[in-house]
Amino acid sequence: xxxxxxxxxxxxxxxxxxxxxxxxxxxxxxxxxxxxxxxxxxxxxxxxxxxxxxxxxxxxxxxxxxxxxxxxxxxxxxxxxxxxxxxxxxxxxxxxxxxxxxxxxxxxxxxxxxxxxxxxxxxxxxxxxxxxxxxxxxxxxxxxxxxxxxxxxxxxxxxxxxxxxxxxxxxxxxxxxxxxxxxxxxxxxxxxxxxxxxxxxxxxxxxxxxxxx
Length: 213
Known about the structure:
This protein has 213 residues and is an alpha+beta fold. 15% of the residues lie in helices and 44% in strands. The protein has a 12-stranded mixed beta sheet. A hairpin with a 6-residue loop joins strand 3 and strand 4.
């Protein structure tokens, strides 16, 4: 399950070796309230995946955003909601301030303080960049058709990982389509007005210190 979470979380961040900085400009988080929903298949199991920016706040003079990843599978036991408070993009996971997660119908939990500090390095190592950035090349600009419609997008390919990704900067989170060994992700819809999918107050994980301020 963890490999699915990170595959979907970072599938939109494939970078061309010739222009990492330029590509990063295209995949920065959209404005608050914007969302993108995907049809995803991982090892033949279907999922609905939704990325959204659900809020923002300032800490220590730095603007932070709450980004939500919600996954719903054919098996409800695999349903999961993740919310991360990060500076500017999912490539800055080493600076994540808080993590809220809700597995299925179980209570929402919040990780902050020492727990988050311990996880930062692990999250950074699990980042899509640590693997798929190596050897990725630009195929070109193409028209790609997905359930949400037809889009002009930049096509990137990784021969090492046998994966292809199509990125369009005018789409929230930039990802139009990504496919690789054992998975397929396609945009189905996009819009505005996103709010938190977690309605109850998250419980602080025991033994952890207060949230960093």
